[in-house]
Task: structure prediction
Amino acid sequence: MSKSIQDYYNELSQSDKTICDLLALSINNVLKNAESKIWHAHPVWFLDGNPIVGYSKQKAGIRLMFWSGSDFGADDLNVRGEKFKDASIFYNSVNEIDENKLKHWLEQSIIIQWDYKNIVKRKGKLERLK
Result:
């Protein structure tokens, strides 16, 4: 784990760390070639410079967000972005995490990607990569 992500973890409560530990372990197991770093103040994983998945502490709990998640066809990813293709779920306990669903979503995040890396160059227009 990078120092910047470790610093992020150090600010979390023990229960939030437990959730984030499980999420990070699952993400790293499926997205083996991903680069992780703190981006917009929270941990995010990238494939070829394109943001794929990340999580953050919010009032509603730990928010797990997939940048292209609205196209996964997953009803559980019910917090949808209005402008882009992101979709999220909140967790308040490690017991709420369905590891099979999480693995499936992570696999989907490799197959279904929108090009956020070049969104500025395209003046806010998203194009599908995969």
Helices lie at 3-10, 14-30, 99-111. The beta strands are 35-39, 42-47, 50-58, 61-66, 79-80, 87-91.
